[in-house]
Amino acid sequence: MTASEPGTDPEPEAGPEPQPLAVPADGVPAVSVYAEDIAAAAELLDSGHGAFAIDAERASGFRYSNRAYLIQIRRAGAGTVLIDPVSHGRDPLQTLAPVAKVLDEGEWILHAADQDLPCLAELGLRPPALYDTELAGRLAGYDRVNLAAMVARLLGLGLAKGHGAADWSKRPLPAAWLNYAALDVEVLLELRDAIANVLAEQGKTDWAAQEFEYLRTAEPTVTRRDRWRRTSGIHKVKNRQALAEVRQLWTVRDQIAARRDIAPGRILPDSAIVAAALADPKTVDELTALPVFGGPKQRRQANTWLQAIAAGRADTDPPQLSERQPGPPPAVRWSRRKPEASARLEAARSALTALSDQVGVPTENLVSPELVRRLCWDWTPDGPAQPRIEAFLAENGARPWQRELVGPVLAGALG
Question: Which Gene3D superfamilies match (predicted)?
């Protein structure tokens, strides 16, 4: 099968239960904490050969930062090393420099690389080449692409349920957590080979290579300006002054969370921010009568929260109820505001769904949905459609394989 005639393998028939993989074959290695330990780990990795299977554990939901609290690396001929990048009390870039030098020798294999690459880059660790097994699974047309599902499907092994959502900033790390962490890279090298074979059979090897290189070299995503608008439950706030109180409470909470490196929700939950903005308390007693604020921790911070509420109430330029976003409005409004654009979007989505079924790749991996919305909103029927569409896609980062597939389909839908 060629790249011009891709397809997917059929869903496998129900087979034997996956063979449980409860512990690493060579046992759980000791954690390398101090500079001399990390240098020894680098020497061990250097003695191996081929690609590096890499994973990182963070403390999302517990810490403000997105830093890595444990790094797992495996290489053929060397085995697995576990590295603690935070507990040695020295500059982590300097301490991890020997590891960075070794890792610059070969391809990195990660599962869901976009989650781990930023925290690894903070430590001076950047891949010279990349293979993302989760993204490869998506390109192969798999419905389930989490690590356990892909290992079971392609290798016939069952990974033990893990501790991925645990507080990895905890020290010392429990033995069960370290076992889980080591298993995350135990068969990643074999998984890479297995999914690569599937993609080769489907004629998608080059597509995957383009996607991996794009992911490896992509600039960090710019977050939306008004992050406080992501406060859960903010839709309940219907007036601008109360919205100003939400913004002020969110900002004060964020400053405290950053200073203490604690997840903001553990300082004050979103629900409490919204409740306070709606109630607009004027005194400590009124504030502590609200849910959450009556607890001992929040009582100690009551004056801080009350001052934030007062600052929001006094804001002479409260925020608008909805944030002005660049680009087209939400698609649900198109039928009233610009019905011709709504019709174009419907036609484009229908054509892309058919293409997705044909090549066995999810539509969101064929082309960014945001690009499709922008194209359909701004489209004018001036001249040949396909060259303009392909130029638009190229200017906005679509890879050659995507442009080759999607360009003619969108031209047919819009032309």
Answer: HRDC domain, Ribonuclease H-like superfamily/Ribonuclease H
